[in-house]
Amino acid sequence: MQMPKPDQGVLARKSRIVTRLRAVLPADAVIDAVEELRVYECDALTAYRCPPLAAVLPRTTDEVAAVLRVCWEEGVPVVPRGSGTSLAGGAMPTADSVILGVARMNRVLAADYDNRFVHVEAGRTNLSVTGAVEAEGFFYAPDPSSQLACAIAGNIAMNSGGAHCLKYGVTTNNLLGVRLVQMDGTIVTLGGPWGEPSGLDLLGVVCGSEGQLGVVTEAWLRILPKPEGARPVLVGFNSNEVAGACVSDIIKAGILPVAIEFMDRPCIRATEAFAKAGYPDCEALLIIEVEGSEAEIAEQLGRIKDIALAHDPVEFREAADEDQAKRIWLGRKSAFGAMGQINDYMCLDGTIPVSSLPHVLKRIGEMSQEFGLDVGNVFHAGDGNMHPLILFNANTPGDLEKCEAFGAEILKLCVEVGGCLTGEHGVGIEKRDLMAVQFAPADMEAQMRVKDVFDPKWLLNPAKVFPLATSAERRAG
Amino acid sequence: MRPVTEAELAEAVAGASGPLLVRGGGTRTLGHAVGEVLETGGLSGVELYEPGALTLVVRAGTPVAEVEEVLASERQRLAFEVPDLRGLLGREGLSTIGGVLAANASGPRRVQVGAARDAALGVRFVDGTGAVVKNGGRVMKNVTGYDLVKLMAGSRGALGVLSEVSFKVQAQPEAEATLIVEGLGDEAGLAALRVALGSPFDVSGAARHSGRSLIRVEGMAGSVAYRVRELTARVGGEVSVVEAEASTRLWREVRDVAPFHGRPGEVWRIATLPTVAAEIVAGLEGQALWDWGGGLIWLLLDHGRGAEVAAAVAGRGHATLVRGEGGPVFPPEAPEVAALVAGVKAKFDPRGILNRGMMG
């Protein structure tokens, strides 16, 4: 993975830059010791590492503005960081950059149940937003699988999804407003607790801009009343085609499950060996979860059962109680861990039209043979968001490169069938160089023009999202 | 001008020598833009419809009525309930799907499923230089690059002319019912809506006008009956229930602001917090229709009340003049936001020819 050469001028001015940062922040908020900076050398895309020039951990929006103003004046790139759980390298630094971590900004500023929103500082973790409102019977819907650790700031940067977005949407559909600090230190409020934009929907383009337009310090988030209950069923099929058809029929019938998860045979076998959830050994397995009162759950599951049985499954398993429901989810929730037991893995998240599912799975199987690397598929079937896990051995020379080449082929296939490179993880550095597969130069030019307005010097997270050659002129200033 | 292909549209914009007034059906255009009319109605037709994937890709000039007909043939619909504002604004013509997204036009179901912007999956458009740009796509989860789909939604043609849009669609529910709550004043009637929206009973409409609060639930028959019972026990007032077509009619009236049709005066559209929605209206003494649980106020006032409206809403929402003469149509933005808006417009339309003056 190529990153731009660090600016030697910035490296040479390190002590002056750190001194200026110390002048605007409390002593414990500036980190410049080499050994302490190693914490920030990567995010969850651990294959690539580079310690930053310095890291800052401000506690207020004004401190964020002060830091950015210093960096803007000094021409120092800034890499915003939530909790560092990005799988795409969204928070990976360069040697000449300052990491701006928002983790210390984690307060709940207001919880308004009557108007159904919560106002939080952006360093707060996803799950603890729900934690702050659940006593009143509410929750925050987007639930990325890293929700215990990941920060709202990162969720907004990547427009994070989760297992339940079939019903509740992704971050952008649950985000009402933000306070954002621009690279030159200007503080703006976009949107607000009422949710409806008053003019251009700048909030909509900030969400998912991967920390390239500004640093989000506060957010107004929609909260929803918790459903009365939820219950999954498990359906096993001996063909991916039939499982795909079953998903399509459920959706067409107007049933809206909160989640439809899909696992293929390699993934089922790996999780069985690891978690012993008692899954059937079949080609494709669906976990379908519905919500509501007892009667509503029964009504929906009855309808789903009729549809599933018409497709002749090898098994249709209902959960009689909470314990059985947990066992149905057990294998799915252990899938990543199970694959990790076997080997190192790379997780992709391209999205495809649901109708292309059987074709794409077949092609991935063929490519797995060609590349000589195993792959398991576990994904959100209702919305076509794939999660192929490619297994490789990081200690075998050349294996990582082979794995990346295989991954790139899978993502090209996703685009070819009408889908996209990434459904919820973001582009970061990982998929940066594949952007031209999905977008024509004019498409990327239009996106980069938005950054030109928010960050004319291209100092915020500059070496991400767009292929380096495409953004070179702008980054050079 | 009325191009019939995207290439013709691009040529028309690139070759324009003066301002252009971009128009779909012209049924919900706001503001005072002037210029040579550029109609999108020639770009019509469904490109792709996959009911099993809830996906529709359609050319931007396609009439909404045609889109709704195509979806209805598979018992599906646009989830966000497109308002028909012809009666309110005194317009004629056929609303286009591109115009709907350009206005982010969203009806009562916004409280449950979001706005037009939330259902939009992808766009193709011609920017002010004549370049064709695509963004998003036809899949439900897509974070590849910046989300210009949201930026284009509600931009009212100021950044580019839409040529194609894709939407996530929704199955029609098998049953629908509406609780009509009477005998409550505005403050208590709006509180009843908030109780309903704060419950787990998945309310898909919460509105109030003419002294009645309306609460809608949709879904499977058994579930609708259950939720009607539970809500009736919680909201207070005198509750009666209507179902099916009688319920649909009530929500069409709310969606289209029917109580104001043919009534003289200025119409304001106010986005605010539900808890202050009664107070804002009481202070201004106009006639109101509240939607979105109070988060949206349609307010009918005498001429020339702009300053009072702005003062009543300041710091707790914003107001747009949708029918009337005086004052700016769109609310002014804070200076630092206005600078960003101006910057984005200048990038997408450097000559400043697209719907100049429409959004201020």
Form type of chain A: globular
Percent of residues in beta strands of chain B: 25-35%
**Backbone structural class of chain A:** alpha+beta
The total number of structural domains of chain B is 3
How does this structure look, described?
Chain A is built from 19 helices and 18 strands. With 477 residues, chain A is α+β, with helices and mostly antiparallel strands. Among the domains of chain A are: 8-103, Uridine Diphospho-n-acetylenolpyruvylglucosamine Reductase, domain 2, CATH 3.30.43.10; 230-271 and 282-329, Alpha-Beta Plaits; 343-416, Alpha-Beta Plaits (2-Layer Sandwich), CATH 3.30.70.2740. Chain A has a 7-stranded antiparallel sheet with strand order 15-12-14-13-17-18-16, sandwiched between helices. In chain A, strands 5-6-10-8-9 form a 5-stranded antiparallel sheet. In chain A, helix 2 runs antiparallel to helix 4 (61-74) and helix 15 (357-371) runs antiparallel to helix 16 (399-416). The longest helix of chain A has 18 residues, at 399-416. Chain A is globular, with a radius of gyration of 23 Å. The mean pLDDT of chain A is 95. Chain B is of the alpha+beta class and 360 residues long. Chain B folds into 3 domains: 6-171, Uridine Diphospho-n-acetylenolpyruvylglucosamine Reductase, domain 3 (2-Layer Sandwich), CATH 3.30.465.10; 175-255, 2-Layer Sandwich (Alpha-Beta Plaits), CATH 3.30.70.2190; 258-323, ACT domain (Alpha-Beta Plaits, 2-Layer Sandwich), CATH 3.30.70.260. Chain B has helices at 6-14, 64-72, 86-89, 97-102, 110-113, 116-119, 148-152, 186-197, 221-235, 244-255, 277-284, 306-313, 335-348, and strands at 20-23, 36-39, 46-50, 55-59, 76-77, 120-127, 132-136, 160-168, 170-171, 175-182, 203-209, 212-219, 238-243, 266-272, 287-291, 296-301, 317-323. Chain B has a 5-stranded antiparallel sheet with strand order 3-4-8-6-7. Chain B has a 4-stranded antiparallel sheet with strand order 11-12-10-13, with helices on both faces. In chain B, strands 15-16-14-17 form a 4-stranded antiparallel sheet, covered by helices on one side. Chain B is globular and about 60 Å long. The mean pLDDT of chain B is 96. At the A-B interface, strand 9, helix 9, helix 10, helix 12 and helix 18 of A face strand 7, helix 7, helix 9, strand 17 and helix 13 of B.
